[in-house]
Design brief:
InterPro entries: 4-hydroxybenzoyl-CoA_TE, HB-CoA_thioesterase_AS, HotDog_dom_sf, YbgC/YbaW. It is built from three helices and seven strands; from the N terminus they run E-H-H-E-E-E-E-E-E-H. With about 130 residues, it is of the alpha+beta class. The strands form two sheets. A five-stranded antiparallel beta sheet has the order 1-4-5-6-3, with helices on one face. The chain has a two-stranded antiparallel sheet with strand order 2-7.
């Protein structure tokens, strides 16, 4: 399955007094990974929303292994778990500069019609891009 990675530097505001990333910031890192995964396929999240689709998270699980700290560069690896249907599922690894795995995670998201908020199948243009890569 298609995967993507992006590296970012931990900002001061993402940490607590000990300089450790606050656990509530990890879902934002996962979102960044997903949005960039889509962008790498040539799909704009903004365009997807403008064409009537939204993609809310339906489940999230994060396993914290080691702390990420202020000024550290982390790499977020996003892996598509399976071919999307009404849902799309991802696995993630967040790695530190030294190659250590800091966290792993899984998310499930549902494709919804933005007007009705009802589930819909993955848009064909997204499915085609996934199957091409």
């Amino acid at each position: 399955m298609h995967s993507h990675e992006i590296s970012i530097r931990i900002r001061y505001g993402e940490t607590d007094q000990m300089g450790v990333v606050y656990h509530g910031n990890y879902p934002q890192y996962l979102e960044l990974g997903r949005v960039e995964w889509l962008r790498a396929l040539g799909i704009s999240y903004k365009n997807m929303e403008e064409t009537g689709y939204i993609l809310p998270v339906t489940s999230i699980a994060i396993q914290y292994k080691k702390p990420a700290v202020y000024d550290q560069v982390i790499t977020i690896r996003t892996h598509l778990r399976n071919i999307p249907t009404v849902r799309i599922s991802f696995d993630y690894e967040i790695e530190g500069e030294n190659g250590e795995i800091l966290a792993t995670a899984q998310t499930d998201l549902a494709f919804l019609n933005s007007e009705t908020r009802r589930p819909v199948r993955c848009p064909d243009y997204i499915l085609q891009k996934v199957l091409q890569n």
